[in-house]
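step=predict obj=Demethylmenaquinone methyltransferase n=246
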Amino acid sequence: MSRADLNKQPEQVAAMFDQVSTHYDRTNAVLSVGNAALWRMAATRAVAPQPGDRILDIAAGTGTSSAALTRTGAHVVAADFSAGMIRVGRERHADNPLIEFVQADATALPFADNEFDAVTISFGLRNVVEPKKALAEFYRVTKPGGRLVICEFSTPPVAPICAAYFAYLHHVMPLVVKLASSNAEAYDYLGESIAAWPDQSTLSGWLRDAGYQAVAYRNLSLGIVALHRGVKPANAADATAADTTS
């Protein structure tokens, strides 16, 4: 299977990322014109990892974002649906004891309730077949008072910039991918998934529906990417206990 379509069957998406895992980081750097590193830095600052924190990095890929999160002493569980990504990540970060790689489905996470101080996902939520179900899982495994950070492609709010961006996705990116990627067809899917993804306000609404409070977003690179944040209410554990006993 060379690529997935917008129906996003999980096995197709996993197979696609398995095929591009070896050169994934290099291709992203080329396609983003170097901005991928800046977006990753912004997401790391938003997560604000502290020594001793336990952080879940979902759709972690080869662990580049996970490694950045460990630099302050946080322990990071790098989860990804793709076995190929996990394999490459384990090889690249074998000398980092603060990263634990786990193959996992974002819609059925193999973790306990209220386990993580922070949950983060960068450029992966749009590849999940049921993103709202994934958000519910993120909420479940986040500790009361814990934080969620989502970095994802979005919709530039200024019309000319939006038009230029989508022209890049449809006409320029396919040409660049043929030179930079080991699987150009897979990146056709990625461009389509970006174009089909909801805007900033819609995703913010999904976070609120999942139970998060203090929901906010900040545009990066003129809105090509948006950094979304939310906090699980501190009394969420009490509410869960009440639901269980009622």
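step=describe
The beta strands are 54-58, 75-80, 99-103, 116-122, 142-153, 213-220, 225-231.
step=end
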